[in-house]
């Protein structure tokens, strides 16, 4: 089997340093941009929702499958962060993006990318962001309850949002593990919830920057932060290495539901190639091996045709926080 190249990029400039045959050469004299041929290779941009090295190791079967199905070499690149992946698509340095909901909307709004697929997780097309703590006595108004080895309180065991938001005012003065501003679950929705609860998120909490959802869980688990934000339920990512994470890290609140992440394709690609890529990805998700691989990468159980209008709620949240 081909060894697919998977490159961890430190920034968009690092992606640009890769030889990207996916950026097709200049059209011949007399050609129009519309007449330019589709590229002879493609770059798939991934964002690190978990440990970057783990993402590099697990994504190879996906890019191998796409290469075989499309007859075009597909190279996976792990970008530095969420926004780097969007900018890579806008700069023609990536043609396929596995992106969170905010970045799907941005890629479409800013660069005309075609949002073709959205993810399902156990039949759900949306998810809440969760507030986690290692100090349940402070944040839980009732006794924590257990589901599948994980502890919840304040009604968060319903596993849908919103829940427990009356308790988040107690976060004032705490050290909080926070992802970058591009993360819907690790930043946008929990920060918005805190602001709507009356907190000044610049001065009322001590923000501990983390790079990914698993890092947020581990910051709470290890006591580096009293509270952390993540998607539901990011504790499962680290359970293999920290079996007691569900007992030490308690989910005490959940935000409103966030549309699932999905796949955007560059508008530089022909409609025919975009359709072939979308079909190949959806078909991959419907195989046993593909489902297993996608679950390893992003906890995805299925890829389904996207409803672009579902991203409107993300746009409104981003506007409220000035993230457009």
From TrEMBL:
Is Signal found in the keyword set?
yes
Q: Which UniProt keywords apply?
A: Signal
| Transport found in the keyword field | no
Query: So which residues are the signal peptide here?
Result: 1-21
- Which family is this protein grouped under? Belongs to the phosphate/phosphite/phosphonate binding protein family.
Q: Which PANTHER family match?
A: PHOSPHONATES-BINDING PERIPLASMIC PROTEIN
Q: What is this protein called?
A: Phosphate/phosphite/phosphonate ABC transporter substrate-binding protein
Annotated source species? Microbacterium plantarum
């Amino acid at each position: 089997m081909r060894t697919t190249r998977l490159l961890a990029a430190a920034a968009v400039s690092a992606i640009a340093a890769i030889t990207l045959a996916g950026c097709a050469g200049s059209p011949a004299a007399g050609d129009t941009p519309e007449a330019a041929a589709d590229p002879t290779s493609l770059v798939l941009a991934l964002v690190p929702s978990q440990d970057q090295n783990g993402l590099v190791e697990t994504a190879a079967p996906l890019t191998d499958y796409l290469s075989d199905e499309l007859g075009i070499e597909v190279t996976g690149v792990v970008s530095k962060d969420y926004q780097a992946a969007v900018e890579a698509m806008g700069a023609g340095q990536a043609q396929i993006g596995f992106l969170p909901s905010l970045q799907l909307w941005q890629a479409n709004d800013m660069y005309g990318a075609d949002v073709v697929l959205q993810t399902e997780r156990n039949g759900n097309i949306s998810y809440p962001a969760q507030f986690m703590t290692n100090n349940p006595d402070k944040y839980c108004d009732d006794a924590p309850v257990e589901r599948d080895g994980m502890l919840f309180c304040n009604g968060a065991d319903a596993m849908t949002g919103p829940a427990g938001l009356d308790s988040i005012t107690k976060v004032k003065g705490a050290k909080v593990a926070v992802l970058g501003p591009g993360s819907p679950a690790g930043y946008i929705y929990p920060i918005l919830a805190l602001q709507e609860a009356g907190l000044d998120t610049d001065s009322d909490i001590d923000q501990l920057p983390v790079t990914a959802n698993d890092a947020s869980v581990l910051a709470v688990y290890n006591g580096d932060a009293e509270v952390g934000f993540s998607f539901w339920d990011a504790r499962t990512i680290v359970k293999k290495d920290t079996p007691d994470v569900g007992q030490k890290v308690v989910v005490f609140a959940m935000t409103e539901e966030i549309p699932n992440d999905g796949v955007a394709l560059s508008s530089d690609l022909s409609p025919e190639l975009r359709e072939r890529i979308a079909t190949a990805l959806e078909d991959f998700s419907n195989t046993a091996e593909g489902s297993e691989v996608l679950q390893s990468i992003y906890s995805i159980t299925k890829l389904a045709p996207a409803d672009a209008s579902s991203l409107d709620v993300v746009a409104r949240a981003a506007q409220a926080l000035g993230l457009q």
